[in-house]
Amino acid sequence: MGKSDSLALTANEQDCAEQARPVRIPVHVTASRGGTTSLRETAIVEFGGPEHAIFLSTLPLEFDDQVRIEATEEGRPAEATVVGVQYHEGRKAVAVRFLHGPCDWVMTEP
Question: What is the mean pLDDT of residues 9-25?
Fold first, then answer.
């Protein structure tokens, strides 16, 4: 495998990680699995910004999967795509990027 097959962070991705702040927003996460099958769970967005969110998940999510995230108190859903998955000590953190621009219910102010 050549160098083009390796994973490297771009400047934009580094900015995303630097801008993420603790937010602790309760959400419902729904992942579609072809046809009419959907998987759903309640989660907490632990870190976020207007264009990204990070939450722990038990859903079988992988890179590039699409999910729908709805803040339980706001009721406004946001479509997102999985941009990262990290497994650590039996837990899975999922990072998503909102598909339709900034998501206004993710607060970035402390």
Answer: 63
